[in-house]
Sequence to fold (503 residues):
Amino acid sequence: MNVYLKLLSRLLLAAVCAAAVARADEGPSAPAGPVVLPPEVSALPVIQAVLTSPPHVPPAITRTTSARVVVNLEVLEVVARLADGVEYTFWTYGGSVPGSFIRIREGDVVEFHLNNHPSSKLPHNIDLHAVTGAGGGAASTFTAPGHSSQFTFQALNPGLYVYHCATAPVPMHIGNGMYGLILVEPKGGLPAVDKEFYVMQGEFYTTGKFGEEGLQSFDMAKAIDERPPYIVFNGAVGALVGDKALSAKVGDTVRIYFGVGGPNVVSSFHVIGEIFDRVYTEAGLGAPNLNVQTTLVPSGGATMVEMKLEVPGTFILVDHSLTRAFNKGALGMLKVEGAANRVYYSGKEIDAVYLGAQAEAGSDSAKREAQLRSQIAAETKANPVIAGLTKEMQIEKGKQVYMGLCFACHQADGKGLPGAFPPLAASDYMLADRDRAIRIVLKGLTGPVTVNGTTLNSVMPPQEAVLTDAQVADVLTYVYNAWGNTGEAFSAAKVKAIRNETH
Ligand SMILES: [Cu+2]
Fold:
């Protein structure tokens, strides 16, 4: 009959039979009535907690005394996008993955309400790692659809803590998105920063492969084998890219509250092109580690990283176990605007490409470029009509960019690799739309793409942080004129216009 009732009775039975056995997943516990608070606690001001969905963080706490904080968290089962064309039934706290960010202060007495929406199909609960008490609140919050549970706890330890569902089967509830972060600010507060962000990594065990379209469901066998098709930041592939990228300005100090929901996979958290000035390892509030490149974050754990942004650009957040980033979705972006500091980073030195033995053709083309340069100089003196030579020059410069960057995937002969990288040689897809080609090089490409009748569903990383407008124009001029392709030269001005496009 009713799945939920069956499950509930199974849990009750398990609780009775195994009363003495410690369980990670907690079934229901009978309500004991509201706690009678001592007068000094009941005298505390009552404050309604501000909850935010990712990547937002509630404002810093400015009060200097404890409070009774009321948290109202709603459990919602929602169908939402996991990747382009891929949907998933997420179980959430507050409608988002990760769930709402909760911010309280050390010493606060929290009146916690867990409200399970009537449209839910299953009971849920919550285990907050910030709670000192059996199950972290799990048994006290076991809540049927259309019900609400209340319990009280005092935040004894400051820190950044994961919360998650602990209803059986626990890995399935977490694997469907039931996790989030609760920050317990220390009494003295945290150091002030200019921007704070909320990012969590978690993996999804879909029945279909990565990118397989349609509504996907949870695959328990894959979960047990720890073979997730998706490992993502903030609940979906691309949740933090393009117009959803995190944004800041040069000179800002940013803090990322980074957690791992799991249920299984740990993260080697790294930001490409930045160094964490401070890492509060495992979100412990002792002295931070300084000048860290990559920090390991356990499943069911968190960290706080802080970095001052010295130069503009797009900085890529990854799990540095990199196939997770480039093939499973664990990739986000931090876009930093402001004036360049070319001593810190001279992003425009276009000839500094190293060409290894594999890219011999590239170094020949460097020589050829030098020849053409002097030829142009000579020719310009005698003849102002130099258009043809400029295109040839762009082709040679573009070839160097190609041999330093694109060839690793699309191959030196432009034929790609079947099943992994699409061809650029005679690519009907590429040749059909020049602006789209510029956009792909700048912004990357995800989702299914059909080239010469063969469909691939992979990820091309964006190159906008790596290449100048001129380099993009040159490399496309090269690929549009190599391996039998023919096409006009691309202009840096056109690339610039597309780079500045708003979505
Ligand atoms: Cu649950």
